[in-house]
Amino acid sequence: MPTLALRAFLTAAALLLSINDIVFAEPTLVPAMAEDKRLLPYVKPGQLVDINGRRINLQCTGLGSPAVILMAGSFSWAYTWYKTQPEIAKKTHVCAFDRASYGFSDPAPQPQILPDTVSDLHAALKAADVPGPYVLVGHSLGGLEARLFAQRWPQEVAGMVLVDTSPAAEALIEVNQPYYDAGDSLESYTSKQLRCILLAAHGPLDPSSPEYDHCSIGPLPVDTPDALRKIWPSFFTSDHAAAQLSLISSLFTHRYDSADHLHLADMPLVVLSADVGWNLSGPTGSFWQTYRKLWFAQHEALAHLSSRGVHRVIEHSRHQIQLDQPQAVVDAVDEVLRELHVAAKS
Fold first, then answer.
1. Strands 134-139 and 94-97
2. How confident is the model at residue 29, as a pLDDT?
3. I need a surface site. Which of 65, 183, 212, 274 has the fewest CB within 10 A?
């Protein structure tokens, strides 16, 4: 039996070691962050489809028709759909697409412009025997590519979901808005991207370098599997940086304006807008506060390309709705699929 003095000492020690409900005398281990296994399929190529001696990666899952084709924004490739593709695959066949020089696809002979990426996708779907007509789901620049695809092959598109899509000539519209940041100009972006090209020409980017976040599109989510972290720097080659620069320049021209004036008749169409916006002069900065209404109005106009078009603003979402509010994208795809199935039965 401890003496009274010893018991008092032990009591005092326990009190000292119990501060703010944290008992330091018996530390508990903080569990490691669980990996998001939905990312694991994107650690390796899906189907590398040969088109004229180059390979284009299609990441396809699920069964059924119509096939849903996922087209990423200018800074992403197939992996950006990791939260939505598994859910869509429960309903039908779905393929995510890597542009040339993106993800696991081979580089093109020269940096591509929008008609080139659309031609690659069309050729890859044919070579992989993925039958149309398709439901095209395009995020950001991928939404403009989806409209260009529909413009060139209208009979091969059954429906569309445009996810916070870029309007044609988006950059020329933005540059004339109040509070536009010259740091987001084509000249500034070109300078930064040329630096990435020069750095990547000497081998994989060093994650500790000050340019790494810009050249590799920022940090990965904390629950990214180690397998993807390991290969992540290898994606950011000089070819990839050059392809990004070439594609972004497509937004500084009126060449593709006709894609925003399609006649889609009664095609099922859902246009989603991010409520919070994107990091252009800050997600809640002055630019977005003044540009927001115009951004929504441009999306509303795109919804009117079809008599069945719907425009929806997704609350609490930034530009990448498929990552912030993935269910909103899944629901929009489901809506288009339901309309197509009802039409097929009537």
1. unpaired
2. 44
3. 183
Q: Cα dihedral angle (29, 31, 44, 333), rounded to 10 degrees?
A: -170
DSSP notation for 299-323: HHHHHTTSTTEEEEEETT-BS-HHH
Q: What is the pLDDT of residues 169-203, one digit of tens each?
A: 998 888 888 877 766 677 777 888 888 888 888 88
Give the phi and the psi of residue 329 in degrees, each rounded to 5: -70, -45
Residues 205, 215 contacting (CB under 8 angstroms) = yes
How far does the chain reach from its first CA to its final CA, in angstroms? 87
Residue for token digits 């659309």? Answer: 118
Q: From CA 288, how far away is CA 286, in angstroms rounded?
A: 6
* Helix axes of 238-249 and 186-200: crossing angle, nearest 10 degrees: 170
Q: Is 140 left (phi over 0), alpha (psi -120 to 50) or beta?
A: left
d(CA 32, CA 53): 44
- Answer whether 112's CB lies under 8 Å from 249's CB: no
The whole-model pTM stands at: 0.87
Where are the extended beta strands (E) located within the chain? 18-19, 22-23, 47-51, 54-61, 68-71, 94-97, 134-139, 157-163, 269-274, 309-314
In order, the DSSP letters of 217-246 are TSPPPTT--HHHHHHGGGG--HHHHHHHHH
Spell out the domains of the chain, with CATH numbers in brackets.
Answer: 37-345 (3.40.50.1820)
Cis check: omega of the bond before 221, within 30 degrees of 0: no
219-222 LR contacts (CB < 8 Å, sep 24+): 221/36, 222/33
